[in-house]
Amino acid sequence: MSAIASVPDAPVVALRGVHKTYRLGQHVIPALQGVDLDVRRGEMLAITGPSGSGKSTILNLCGLIDAPDRGEIVLGGQSVTALDESRRTLLRRDALGFVFQSFNLVPVMSVAENVDFPLFLAGVPEAERRRRVAAQLDAVGLAEHARHRPDALSGGQRQRVAIARALVKGPRLVIADEPTASLDSHTADQVLDLMRERCRAEGASFVIATHDGRLTGRCDRVLSLLDGRLQ
Q: DSSP string of 115-152?
């Protein structure tokens, strides 16, 4: 299913000489200034830096939510910089997973329905969807909560649902934006251990923007972003 595993030994995602600016009124804000980045297969990569340093911009580019002003985005050895929005949307749907600080679960859906939703959108047959959802909920320790609504869960449980939803499509790449920022220390530790375990079990790469030192200690590699440049 993954459209980013086509070229053997290529990075899962790479940024090449990427520049990105934003306009605030008459002001031009340089978010990224010539960033080069390779994300290896199966690694957990943390990107740290102060607020406004460009961490979320890197995630948005890797996740095909945004496009660079200059430079190139390469997925699985194939340039995707010039793709139109509809094609980028399909790639996001079919090949990428996302985990957010605020969980982004649909409150009127059950836990199982939230995890199932990406498969439903992708047109996966119902029997296969049920099998995958059950396997992911079991893997994150929430099989008994399948019929519960998100508001019946703790913050840590909601983030577990979000991780299951991100991985249910079998993506090669998961984008995670401050995934532990809303969690207490004990719960954050549990979620981080789960992300590490699922990264290894699924063979997925994680690119994580974070201020959390507990998270960086569990990652394979940590890069610092300052004034739009990776250190």
A: HHHHHHHTT--HHHHHHHHHHHHHHTT-GGGTTS-GGG
For residues 224 and 49, the answer to whether their CB atoms sit within 8 Å is yes
How far apart CA 178 and CA 155 sit, in angstroms, is 14
Domain boundaries, the chain: 13-230
More confident residue, 227 or 74: 74
Q: Which amino acid is at 39?
A: V
pLDDT per residue over 58-88, tens digit each?
Answer: 999 999 999 999 999 999 899 999 899 999 9
Domain 13-230, CATH among 3.40.50.300, 3.30.360.10, 1.20.950.20, 3.40.190.10? 3.40.50.300
What H or E segment, with its residue span, contains residue 208? strand 205-209
For the record, the structure tokens of 56 come out as 């979320």
Question: Could you read off the pLDDT of 191-215 as tens digits, one per residue?
Answer: 888 888 888 888 889 999 998 888 8
Alpha-carbon torsion 185, 186, 190, 193, what sign? positive
User: Angle of helix 111-121 relative to helix 126-139, nearest 10 degrees?
Assistant: 130
* pTM, 2 dp: 0.89
